[in-house]
């Protein structure tokens, strides 16, 4: 019975999802008509809110907790674990004052309404996973934008999503590149729980009735610490919050 309900709710959700993508694709084209990055990022932020609301259709609860006063006007380097594509919208919406930019595989730069357009024009790092030199260059370019415009950027140092919620090893080279080209950044760790459960059905139906949580952890000043050491410390900090 639950599976049948999830199929019905998923069908409703996918219709919602498609309409949101198409509607915001038009909105994104309008927002970027004067080549204004911030206008496009604000459109992305409201798009993220609509995606979050879509998860409520599936009877999933979304809770984002931040008890820290993050500085305005200072670049942020947001470091978080990765369980699902749905990890992203709550970060974008709840930290919208900081206009987060992301690393994405270059294949997403074409073929996805609105998302591909935003990735190409927002300053995101579009990387070829098979070409480490190109990936580092793209991340460096994004970090320069974040440094200059006092934005924020997000890295998932596990590299790929965890299919069972268990935390993987954190790679440190991307972190090192970001800190090198954005030396003013404050590191903001976030622990994400249970978004992997949305994909438990491994098919059309998205899992329902899950409590999905995002928790902003105490920020870290990176000055005087190397990236490898920071990656280990961030892994330990986030691991304590993963249930």
TrEMBL record:
Q: Which residues cross the membrane?
A: 12-32
Q: Which domain of life is it from?
A: Bacteria
Give the pathway annotation: Lipid metabolism
- Ranges of residues in domain Phospholipid/glycerol acyltransferase: 76-195
Annotated GO biological process: phosphatidic acid biosynthetic process
Q: GO terms for molecular function, please?
A: 1-acylglycerol-3-phosphate O-acyltransferase activity
SMART domains from the xrefs? PlsC
InterPro entries xref list: Plipid/glycerol_acylTrfase
For this protein, the record's SUPFAM superfamilies field holds: Glycerol-3-phosphate (1)-acyltransferase
Q: Which UniProt keywords apply?
A: Acyltransferase, Membrane, Transferase, Transmembrane, Transmembrane helix
Q: Which Pfam families match?
A: Acyltransferase
Carries keyword Metal-binding?
no
Q: What protein does this entry describe?
A: 1-acyl-sn-glycerol-3-phosphate acyltransferase
| Lineage start | Bacteria, Pseudomonadati, Bacteroidota, Sphingobacteriia, Sphingobacteriales
């Amino acid at each position: 019975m639950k599976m049948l309900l999830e199929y019905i709710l998923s069908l409703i959700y996918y219709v919602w999802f498609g309409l949101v993508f198409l509607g915001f694709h038009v909105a994104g084209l309008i927002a970027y008509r004067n080549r204004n990055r911030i206008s496009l990022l604000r459109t992305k932020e409201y798009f993220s809110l609509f995606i979050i609301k879509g998860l409520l259709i599936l009877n999933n609860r979304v809770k984002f907790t931040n008890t820290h006063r993050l500085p305005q006007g200072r670049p942020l380097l947001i470091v978080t674990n990765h369980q699902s594509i749905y990890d992203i919208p709550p970060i974008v919406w709840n930290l919208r004052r900081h206009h987060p930019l992301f690393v994405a595989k270059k294949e997403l730069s074409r073929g996805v309404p609105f998302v591909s357009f935003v990735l190409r024009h927002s300053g995101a790092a579009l990387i070829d996973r098979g070409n480490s030199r190109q990936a580092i260059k793209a991340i460096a370019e994004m970090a320069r934008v974040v440094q200059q415009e006092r934005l924020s950027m997000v890295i998932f140092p596990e590299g790929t999503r965890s299919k069972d919620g268990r935390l993987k090893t954190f790679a440190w080279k991307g972190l090192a590149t970001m800190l090198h080209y954005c030396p003013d950044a404050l590191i903001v760790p976030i622990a994400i729980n249970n978004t992997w459960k949305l994909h438990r059905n491994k098919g059309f139906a998205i899992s329902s009735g899950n409590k999905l949580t995002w928790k902003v952890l105490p920020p870290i000043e990176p000055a005087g610490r190397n990236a490898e050491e920071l990656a280990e410390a961030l892994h330990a900090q986030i691991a304590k919050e993963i249930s």
